[in-house]
Protein backbone atom coordinates (compact mmCIF):
# COMPACT_ATOMS: atom_id res chain seq x y z
CA UNK A 1 0.00 0.00 0.00
CA UNK A 2 2.84 2.38 0.88
CA UNK A 3 4.44 1.87 -2.55
CA UNK A 4 1.12 2.37 -4.33
CA UNK A 5 0.53 5.69 -2.55
CA UNK A 6 4.05 6.88 -3.35
CA UNK A 7 3.50 6.09 -7.02
CA UNK A 8 0.08 7.74 -6.89
CA UNK A 9 1.46 11.03 -5.56
CA UNK A 10 4.10 11.06 -8.28
CA UNK A 11 1.51 10.40 -10.99
CA UNK A 12 -0.80 13.08 -9.59
CA UNK A 13 1.99 15.66 -9.44
CA UNK A 14 2.94 14.87 -13.05
CA UNK A 15 -0.70 15.33 -14.13
CA UNK A 16 -1.37 18.61 -12.33
CA UNK A 17 -2.48 21.58 -14.48
CA UNK A 18 0.38 23.68 -15.75
CA UNK A 19 1.13 26.04 -18.60
CA UNK A 20 -0.39 24.62 -21.77
CA UNK A 21 -2.09 21.66 -20.09
CA UNK A 22 -5.86 21.16 -20.22
CA UNK A 23 -6.15 18.74 -17.32
CA UNK A 24 -7.88 20.04 -14.19
CA UNK A 25 -7.10 19.04 -10.61
CA UNK A 26 -10.11 16.65 -10.20
CA UNK A 27 -9.26 14.88 -13.48
CA UNK A 28 -5.62 14.56 -12.46
CA UNK A 29 -6.80 12.88 -9.26
CA UNK A 30 -9.11 10.50 -11.18
CA UNK A 31 -6.34 9.49 -13.60
CA UNK A 32 -3.92 8.96 -10.71
CA UNK A 33 -6.40 6.72 -8.87
CA UNK A 34 -7.08 4.81 -12.09
CA UNK A 35 -3.39 4.14 -12.61
CA UNK A 36 -3.04 3.13 -8.98
CA UNK A 37 -5.73 0.51 -9.55
CA UNK A 38 -3.61 -0.97 -12.34
CA UNK A 39 -0.72 -1.42 -9.90
CA UNK A 40 -2.84 -2.57 -6.96
CA UNK A 41 -2.59 -6.12 -5.62
CA UNK A 42 -6.03 -5.97 -4.01
CA UNK A 43 -7.90 -9.24 -4.30
CA UNK A 44 -11.37 -8.07 -3.29
CA UNK A 45 -13.54 -5.02 -3.79
CA UNK A 46 -13.27 -4.19 -0.09
CA UNK A 47 -9.46 -4.19 -0.27
CA UNK A 48 -9.51 -2.07 -3.41
CA UNK A 49 -11.85 0.54 -1.91
CA UNK A 50 -9.74 0.64 1.25
CA UNK A 51 -6.62 1.34 -0.82
CA UNK A 52 -8.36 4.01 -2.89
CA UNK A 53 -9.72 5.81 0.16
CA UNK A 54 -6.32 5.72 1.83
CA UNK A 55 -4.68 7.05 -1.31
CA UNK A 56 -7.24 9.85 -1.58
CA UNK A 57 -6.50 10.84 2.01
CA UNK A 58 -2.76 10.81 1.30
CA UNK A 59 -3.25 13.11 -1.69
CA UNK A 60 -5.43 15.48 0.35
CA UNK A 61 -2.83 15.74 3.11
CA UNK A 62 -0.09 16.85 0.71
CA UNK A 63 -2.26 19.55 -0.90
CA UNK A 64 -2.63 23.05 0.53
CA UNK A 65 -5.99 23.45 -1.20
CA UNK A 66 -7.52 19.96 -1.51
CA UNK A 67 -11.08 20.97 -2.47
CA UNK A 68 -10.93 20.17 -6.19
CA UNK A 69 -8.79 17.12 -5.54
CA UNK A 70 -11.32 15.77 -3.04
CA UNK A 71 -14.16 16.33 -5.51
CA UNK A 72 -12.40 14.16 -8.11
CA UNK A 73 -11.47 11.42 -5.62
CA UNK A 74 -14.97 11.37 -4.16
CA UNK A 75 -16.55 11.05 -7.60
CA UNK A 76 -14.23 8.24 -8.65
CA UNK A 77 -14.63 6.22 -5.44
CA UNK A 78 -18.41 6.57 -5.61
CA UNK A 79 -18.30 5.40 -9.23
CA UNK A 80 -16.28 2.33 -8.20
CA UNK A 81 -18.70 1.58 -5.36
CA UNK A 82 -21.86 1.83 -7.46
CA UNK A 83 -20.56 0.36 -10.72
CA UNK A 84 -22.97 -2.38 -11.95
CA UNK A 85 -21.23 -5.52 -13.11
CA UNK A 86 -21.64 -9.20 -13.94
CA UNK A 87 -17.94 -10.05 -14.15
CA UNK A 88 -17.00 -13.68 -13.54
CA UNK A 89 -14.02 -12.69 -11.39
CA UNK A 90 -12.65 -9.73 -9.48
CA UNK A 91 -9.73 -9.53 -11.90
CA UNK A 92 -12.15 -9.02 -14.80
CA UNK A 93 -14.08 -6.44 -12.79
CA UNK A 94 -10.92 -4.49 -11.97
CA UNK A 95 -9.91 -4.46 -15.62
CA UNK A 96 -13.31 -3.09 -16.58
CA UNK A 97 -13.18 -0.43 -13.83
CA UNK A 98 -9.78 0.74 -15.07
CA UNK A 99 -11.08 0.94 -18.63
CA UNK A 100 -14.14 2.91 -17.51
CA UNK A 101 -12.02 5.32 -15.46
CA UNK A 102 -9.74 6.05 -18.41
CA UNK A 103 -12.73 6.44 -20.71
CA UNK A 104 -14.38 8.92 -18.33
CA UNK A 105 -11.23 11.04 -18.16
CA UNK A 106 -11.06 11.15 -21.98
CA UNK A 107 -14.71 12.16 -22.24
CA UNK A 108 -14.35 14.77 -19.52
CA UNK A 109 -11.81 16.69 -21.60
CA UNK A 110 -14.73 17.75 -23.81
CA UNK A 111 -16.82 19.12 -20.93
CA UNK A 112 -15.47 22.65 -21.25
CA UNK A 113 -16.54 22.79 -24.88
CA UNK A 114 -20.08 21.77 -23.86
CA UNK A 115 -20.18 24.47 -21.20
CA UNK A 116 -18.87 27.06 -23.64
CA UNK A 117 -21.71 26.21 -26.03
CA UNK A 118 -24.29 26.75 -23.28
CA UNK A 119 -22.83 30.01 -21.99
CA UNK A 120 -22.23 31.36 -25.50
CA UNK A 121 -25.94 32.11 -25.98
CA UNK A 122 -25.83 34.56 -23.06
CA UNK A 123 -23.18 36.76 -24.69
CA UNK A 124 -25.06 39.44 -26.61
CA UNK A 125 -24.00 42.41 -28.71
CA UNK A 126 -22.16 45.09 -26.75
CA UNK A 127 -22.05 42.97 -23.59
CA UNK A 128 -19.61 44.02 -20.91
CA UNK A 129 -18.52 40.98 -18.90
CA UNK A 130 -16.74 40.85 -15.56
CA UNK A 131 -14.62 37.80 -14.75
CA UNK A 132 -12.24 36.98 -11.95
CA UNK A 133 -8.78 35.44 -11.80
CA UNK A 134 -7.98 32.70 -14.36
CA UNK A 135 -10.42 30.00 -15.42
CA UNK A 136 -9.87 27.67 -18.38
CA UNK A 137 -13.59 27.17 -18.95
CA UNK A 138 -14.34 30.91 -18.86
CA UNK A 139 -11.44 31.55 -21.22
CA UNK A 140 -12.65 28.84 -23.61
CA UNK A 141 -16.17 30.32 -23.58
CA UNK A 142 -14.94 33.81 -24.45
CA UNK A 143 -12.57 32.53 -27.13
CA UNK A 144 -15.37 30.46 -28.66
CA UNK A 145 -17.55 33.55 -28.94
CA UNK A 146 -14.66 35.46 -30.44
CA UNK A 147 -13.92 32.76 -33.00
CA UNK A 148 -17.52 32.03 -33.96
CA UNK A 149 -18.69 35.62 -34.36
CA UNK A 150 -15.40 37.18 -35.44
CA UNK A 151 -15.44 39.59 -32.55
CA UNK A 152 -13.60 42.81 -33.12
CA UNK A 153 -13.35 45.97 -31.10
CA UNK A 154 -11.28 48.23 -28.99
CA UNK A 155 -11.92 50.08 -25.79
CA UNK A 156 -11.88 53.84 -26.01
CA UNK A 157 -11.94 55.30 -22.55
CA UNK A 158 -14.70 53.38 -20.77
CA UNK A 159 -16.69 52.58 -23.92
CA UNK A 160 -16.20 49.64 -26.29
CA UNK A 161 -16.40 50.37 -30.01
CA UNK A 162 -16.99 47.68 -32.63
CA UNK A 163 -16.05 47.40 -36.24
CA UNK A 164 -18.48 45.76 -38.61
CA UNK A 165 -17.40 43.97 -41.75
CA UNK A 166 -19.49 42.47 -44.54
CA UNK A 167 -21.29 40.25 -42.05
CA UNK A 168 -22.52 41.18 -38.60
CA UNK A 169 -20.05 40.60 -35.80
CA UNK A 170 -20.69 40.25 -32.11
CA UNK A 171 -18.81 42.72 -29.95
CA UNK A 172 -18.20 42.41 -26.25
CA UNK A 173 -15.59 43.62 -23.83
CA UNK A 174 -14.26 42.11 -20.64
CA UNK A 175 -13.24 43.45 -17.25
CA UNK A 176 -10.82 41.09 -15.49
CA UNK A 177 -9.90 41.51 -11.84
CA UNK A 178 -6.20 41.27 -11.08
CA UNK A 179 -6.97 38.54 -8.48
CA UNK A 180 -4.42 39.13 -5.79
CA UNK A 181 -2.35 37.62 -4.27
CA UNK A 182 -1.40 35.44 -7.29
CA UNK A 183 -2.39 38.01 -9.90
CA UNK A 184 -3.86 35.36 -12.22
CA UNK A 185 -6.29 37.87 -13.72
CA UNK A 186 -3.36 39.46 -15.53
CA UNK A 187 -2.73 36.15 -17.31
CA UNK A 188 -6.38 36.06 -18.40
CA UNK A 189 -6.22 39.65 -19.65
CA UNK A 190 -3.06 38.94 -21.64
CA UNK A 191 -4.62 35.92 -23.34
CA UNK A 192 -7.88 37.73 -24.17
CA UNK A 193 -6.02 40.76 -25.50
CA UNK A 194 -3.78 38.55 -27.63
CA UNK A 195 -6.92 37.00 -29.13
CA UNK A 196 -8.29 40.44 -30.00
CA UNK A 197 -10.95 40.69 -27.30
CA UNK A 198 -11.21 44.17 -25.71
CA UNK A 199 -10.09 43.73 -22.12
CA UNK A 200 -9.21 45.87 -19.11
CA UNK A 201 -7.68 44.78 -15.80
CA UNK A 202 -9.60 46.03 -12.78
CA UNK A 203 -8.21 46.32 -9.26
CA UNK A 204 -9.85 43.90 -6.84
CA UNK A 205 -10.76 46.92 -4.75
CA UNK A 206 -12.43 48.64 -7.76
CA UNK A 207 -15.10 46.03 -8.54
CA UNK A 208 -17.87 48.12 -6.97
CA UNK A 209 -16.65 51.10 -9.00
CA UNK A 210 -16.86 49.11 -12.26
CA UNK A 211 -20.03 47.10 -11.64
CA UNK A 212 -22.43 49.66 -13.13
CA UNK A 213 -20.70 49.21 -16.52
CA UNK A 214 -21.08 45.43 -16.33
CA UNK A 215 -23.92 43.39 -17.86
CA UNK A 216 -23.14 40.13 -16.09
CA UNK A 217 -20.44 38.23 -14.21
CA UNK A 218 -18.89 35.08 -15.68
CA UNK A 219 -17.06 33.09 -12.99
CA UNK A 220 -15.05 29.87 -13.05
CA UNK A 221 -14.96 27.48 -10.12
CA UNK A 222 -12.81 25.12 -8.12
CA UNK A 223 -15.87 23.32 -6.80
CA UNK A 224 -19.65 23.60 -6.66
CA UNK A 225 -20.87 22.27 -3.33
CA UNK A 226 -24.03 20.46 -2.28
CA UNK A 227 -25.90 23.64 -1.39
CA UNK A 228 -25.32 24.96 -4.93
CA UNK A 229 -22.74 27.41 -3.61
CA UNK A 230 -19.39 28.07 -5.23
CA UNK A 231 -15.80 27.63 -4.08
CA UNK A 232 -13.40 29.67 -6.17
CA UNK A 233 -10.40 31.99 -6.05
CA UNK A 234 -10.60 34.40 -3.14
CA UNK A 235 -12.50 37.52 -4.11
CA UNK A 236 -15.28 35.63 -5.90
CA UNK A 237 -17.62 36.02 -2.94
CA UNK A 238 -17.28 39.78 -2.69
CA UNK A 239 -17.85 40.08 -6.45
CA UNK A 240 -21.06 38.03 -6.08
CA UNK A 241 -22.23 40.26 -3.22
CA UNK A 242 -21.56 43.40 -5.27
CA UNK A 243 -23.27 41.92 -8.35
CA UNK A 244 -26.34 41.02 -6.28
CA UNK A 245 -26.54 44.53 -4.82
CA UNK A 246 -26.27 45.99 -8.34
CA UNK A 247 -28.85 43.52 -9.73
CA UNK A 248 -26.36 41.99 -12.17
CA UNK A 249 -26.56 38.27 -13.08
CA UNK A 250 -23.80 36.09 -11.66
CA UNK A 251 -23.11 33.00 -13.78
CA UNK A 252 -20.80 30.21 -12.62
CA UNK A 253 -19.15 27.78 -15.04
CA UNK A 254 -18.24 24.36 -13.66
CA UNK A 255 -17.54 20.91 -15.02
CA UNK A 256 -19.66 18.22 -13.34
CA UNK A 257 -16.56 16.53 -11.91
CA UNK A 258 -16.18 19.64 -9.76
CA UNK A 259 -19.54 19.03 -8.07
CA UNK A 260 -18.54 18.26 -4.50
CA UNK A 261 -20.61 16.66 -1.75
CA UNK A 262 -19.62 19.23 0.85
CA UNK A 263 -21.91 21.61 2.72
CA UNK A 264 -20.01 24.63 4.10
CA UNK A 265 -22.04 27.10 6.13
CA UNK A 266 -19.36 29.77 6.18
CA UNK A 267 -15.88 30.56 4.89
CA UNK A 268 -14.36 28.81 7.89
CA UNK A 269 -15.93 25.44 7.04
CA UNK A 270 -13.76 25.07 3.93
CA UNK A 271 -11.04 22.39 4.23
CA UNK A 272 -8.46 24.91 3.04
CA UNK A 273 -9.06 27.10 6.12
CA UNK A 274 -6.52 26.92 8.91
CA UNK A 275 -5.89 28.95 12.10
CA UNK A 276 -3.05 30.84 10.41
CA UNK A 277 -5.40 32.49 7.89
CA UNK A 278 -6.05 36.13 8.85
CA UNK A 279 -4.20 35.63 12.13
CA UNK A 280 -2.87 38.63 14.02
CA UNK A 281 0.89 38.90 14.48
CA UNK A 282 2.35 39.21 17.93
CA UNK A 283 1.73 42.72 19.16
CA UNK A 284 4.76 44.82 20.03
CA UNK A 285 5.13 48.33 21.29
CA UNK A 286 5.97 50.41 18.27
CA UNK A 287 6.05 53.91 16.99
CA UNK A 288 5.49 53.55 13.27
CA UNK A 289 6.30 56.13 10.68
CA UNK A 290 6.24 55.77 6.89
CA UNK A 291 9.56 54.86 5.33
CA UNK A 292 8.62 56.93 2.29
CA UNK A 293 5.74 58.84 0.82
CA UNK A 294 3.54 56.94 -1.61
CA UNK A 295 2.93 53.20 -1.79
CA UNK A 296 5.91 50.93 -2.43
CA UNK A 297 5.30 48.14 -4.94
CA UNK A 298 6.77 45.23 -2.99
CA UNK A 299 7.30 46.14 0.63
CA UNK A 300 6.65 48.80 3.21
CA UNK A 301 8.76 49.56 6.27
CA UNK A 302 8.11 50.89 9.77
CA UNK A 303 10.52 51.58 12.61
CA UNK A 304 10.05 50.38 16.18
CA UNK A 305 11.16 52.37 19.17
CA UNK A 306 14.48 50.56 19.20
CA UNK A 307 15.09 51.64 15.60
CA UNK A 308 14.90 48.17 14.02
CA UNK A 309 13.05 48.11 10.65
CA UNK A 310 10.09 45.82 10.03
CA UNK A 311 9.21 45.03 6.44
CA UNK A 312 5.98 43.58 5.12
CA UNK A 313 6.11 42.01 1.66
CA UNK A 314 3.36 40.84 -0.68
CA UNK A 315 4.47 37.28 0.11
CA UNK A 316 3.89 37.89 3.83
CA UNK A 317 0.42 39.22 3.10
CA UNK A 318 -0.41 36.27 0.83
CA UNK A 319 0.63 33.72 3.47
CA UNK A 320 -1.78 35.29 5.96
CA UNK A 321 -4.74 35.32 3.54
CA UNK A 322 -6.99 32.62 2.03
CA UNK A 323 -6.58 31.25 -1.49
CA UNK A 324 -10.28 30.49 -2.02
CA UNK A 325 -13.63 31.60 -0.64
CA UNK A 326 -17.21 30.36 -0.57
CA UNK A 327 -20.10 32.06 -2.41
CA UNK A 328 -23.60 31.36 -1.13
CA UNK A 329 -26.14 29.87 -3.58
CA UNK A 330 -28.54 32.82 -3.22
CA UNK A 331 -25.91 35.02 -4.89
CA UNK A 332 -25.65 32.77 -7.97
CA UNK A 333 -28.03 33.15 -10.91
CA UNK A 334 -27.15 30.00 -12.89
CA UNK A 335 -24.50 27.29 -13.03
CA UNK A 336 -23.48 26.30 -16.56
CA UNK A 337 -22.23 22.73 -16.62
CA UNK A 338 -21.77 19.87 -19.05
CA UNK A 339 -24.99 18.38 -17.62
CA UNK A 340 -26.95 21.54 -18.47
CA UNK A 341 -27.81 25.00 -17.16
CA UNK A 342 -28.73 24.53 -13.52
CA UNK A 343 -30.02 26.71 -10.74
CA UNK A 344 -28.17 26.26 -7.44
CA UNK A 345 -31.12 24.14 -6.29
CA UNK A 346 -30.70 22.04 -9.44
CA UNK A 347 -27.08 21.37 -8.50
CA UNK A 348 -28.25 20.02 -5.14
CA UNK A 349 -30.76 17.73 -6.83
CA UNK A 350 -28.15 16.52 -9.33
CA UNK A 351 -25.71 15.66 -6.55
CA UNK A 352 -28.35 13.75 -4.63
CA UNK A 353 -29.19 11.75 -7.74
CA UNK A 354 -25.56 11.17 -8.68
CA UNK A 355 -24.59 9.73 -5.32
CA UNK A 356 -27.84 7.83 -4.83
CA UNK A 357 -26.80 5.32 -7.48
UniProtKB/TrEMBL annotation:
Record GO terms (molecular function): translation initiation factor activity
SUPFAM superfamilies: NagB/RpiA/CoA transferase-like (SSF100950)
Keyword Protein biosynthesis: yes
The entry's keywords: Cytoplasm, Initiation factor, Protein biosynthesis
Subcellular location: Cytoplasm, Cytosol
Pfam families attached to this UniProt entry: IF-2B
Keyword Protein biosynthesis: yes
Oligomeric form and interacting partners: Component of the translation initiation factor 2B (eIF2B) complex which is a heterodecamer of two sets of five different subunits: alpha, beta, gamma, delta and epsilon. Subunits alpha, beta and delta comprise a regulatory subcomplex and subunits epsilon and gamma comprise a catalytic subcomplex. Within the complex, the hexameric regulatory complex resides at the center, with the two heterodimeric catalytic subcomplexes bound on opposite sides.
Family, similarity comment: Belongs to the eIF-2B alpha/beta/delta subunits family.
Protein name listed in UniProt: Translation initiation factor eIF2B subunit alpha
Lineage of origin: Eukaryota, Fungi, Dikarya, Basidiomycota, Agaricomycotina
Amino acid sequence: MRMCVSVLIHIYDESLPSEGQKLSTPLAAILALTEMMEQSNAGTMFELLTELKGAAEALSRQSLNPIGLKAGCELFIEFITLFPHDAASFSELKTELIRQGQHYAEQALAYRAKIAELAFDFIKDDSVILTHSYSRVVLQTLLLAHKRKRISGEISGSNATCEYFSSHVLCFSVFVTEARPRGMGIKTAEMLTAAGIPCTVVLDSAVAYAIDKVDFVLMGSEAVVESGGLVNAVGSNQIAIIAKAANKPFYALAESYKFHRMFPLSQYDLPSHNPGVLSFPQTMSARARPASSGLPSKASSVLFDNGSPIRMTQEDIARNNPDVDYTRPDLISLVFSDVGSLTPEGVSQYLVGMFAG
